[in-house]
Design goal:
The complex is a heterodimer of chains A (247) and B (130).
Chain A lengths: L2 E10 L9 E10 L4 H11 L19 E4 L2 E4 L12 E4 L6 E3 L2 E2 L2 H9 L21 H8 L9 H5 L1 H5 L6 H11 L7 H8 L13 H5 L6 H21 L6
Parallel strand pairs in A: 1-5
Antiparallel strand pairs in A: 1-2, 3-4, 3-5, 6-7
Chain B lengths: L19 H31 L2 H11 L2 H28 L3 E2 L2 E2 L2 H22 L4
Helix pairs in contact in B: 1-2, 1-3, 3-4
The chains are: A alpha+beta (247), B mainly alpha (130).
Amino acid sequence: MKERLVQLDVLRYNPDTDTEAHFQRYEVMCQEEWVVLDALNKVKESIDPTLNYRWSCHMAVCGSCGMMINGEPKLSCHTFLRDYPGVIRVEPLTHFPVERDLVTAPDDFMEKLKRVKPYVIAKQKKPIEEGEYKQTPAQLMKFRQYSMCINCMLCYAACPEYGLTPHFVGPAALTLAHRYNLDSRDEGRKERMEVVATKEGVWECTFVGACSEVCPAQVDPASALQQLKIVGSIDWIVEHLLPGGKP
Amino acid sequence: MSRRPLIREVPPASWFFRHPRYLRYMAREVTSVFVGAYCVLLVIAMQRLAAGPIAWQEFLVALRSPVSIIFHLLAMAAAFYHAGTWFNATQKAMPLQIGENFVPGSYISGAHYLVWAVLSLVVLFFAGVF
């Protein structure tokens, strides 16, 4: 196996002792096919056990290991060392408070996720003996792409709108709202649009498009948000301009 | 020492220098200034037309000045770029599903470019270019 000495500049912050963050250089022998997360694990095992970061699945499914790698939001388990010939700069996700080293606090995202009610809302639940809620393949395809979100928050780290105006509900939460609005089994669109079609909802988005460029699951949140703008506009026209209109 | 999370502020006036994609976004936004300025010019043109033949002739002479020609070239380049970014965005905003499949996005954006070209030819026809 081909090996190489990898240099990592990792942002360190200890909330107990530090007032500011600082970069620490690590040099560690790595195999060429490793990812950045492997290099961090090797640092933690062999050089510095105090280094903190989150990870779980190591296969781009759990969404835990998001970090800024050379200034770009990435899953560290999905970022290959061979694509980074020089010193690799590793920082916590931008736009989130840093708890310690590479660990950020996701509380704001979790609160926003709850607000858009990301689950199927049925006004009347069917008795179990009536069977399952059926869906055709075409109905599934309508929202399938938006259901692939792994809640990794890379889109929030890439979105300058969220960085500048933190009350923005943000790409992933709004995309999940759209995903459930498009679901043929769902009847909760009106409840969600009360959060979505607002200034701090979809109208805070200025369509930078960075969310879709960094998404590791090809969800394309920017497309969901633009579609929500059209839906919100049609709702507004129906409600305000058509006689007796209800969205 | 208090245990508190570190807040890293986003620089409000220079954030778009952090990545080329943000500069591309700002370029798109800046082109709208030229599009807006050209709209103002059209309003002035209508006002000059309403003011009579002499005012209109003076306006036409002013349009042929070097400054005006440079502005028109810049405004046209900006309008092309601005329109292109939005036509490219239509495939995201207006996906078309037929059965289980989606129509390729390039078809949706391409249709917008086609309509744009046809309408431009119609306008040029009525302007007496052909």
